[in-house]
């Protein structure tokens, strides 16, 4: 558990430092992400983005296991 917390902290620090470049990645605007935009309400379902993020996290964790 300690290794996972340390690794998570390092990842968050790296992402925080790299945010100006990470923010330019078009995650959240991919085909398959559902956006319902009506007057007075906006609903967003990032299905494709979450699948890609889950796949990347799974691959990284598998490499470190």
Task: Compose a concise summary of this entry.
The protein has 65 residues and is an alpha+beta fold. The protein is 58% helix and 15% strand.
Question: What would you note in describing this structure?
Answer:
This protein is an alpha+beta fold. Helices cover 58% and strands 15% of the residues. It has one domain. A two-stranded antiparallel ribbon has the order 1-2. It is elongated, with a radius of gyration of 15 Å. The two termini are 13 Å apart.
Any idea what the shape is?
A: elongated
Number of domains: 1
Distance between the termini: 13 Å
Q: Characterize the biggest β-sheet.
A: 2 strands, antiparallel
Query: Quick one: how many beta strands?
Result: 2
Average pLDDT confidence is 87
Rg calc: 15 Å
Q: Beta fraction of the residues?
A: 15-25%
Spans of 5+ residues with little confidence (pLDDT < 50)? none
- By DSSP (H or I, 4+ residues per run), the number of helices equals 3
């Amino acid at each position: 558990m300690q290794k996972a917390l340390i690794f998570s902290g390092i990842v968050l620090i790296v992402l925080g430092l790299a945010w100006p470049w990470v923010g330019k990645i078009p995650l959240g605007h991919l085909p398959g992400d559902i956006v319902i935009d009506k007057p007075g309400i906006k609903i967003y379902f990032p299905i494709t983005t979450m699948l890609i993020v889950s796949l990347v996290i799974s691959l990284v964790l598998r490499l470190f296991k």
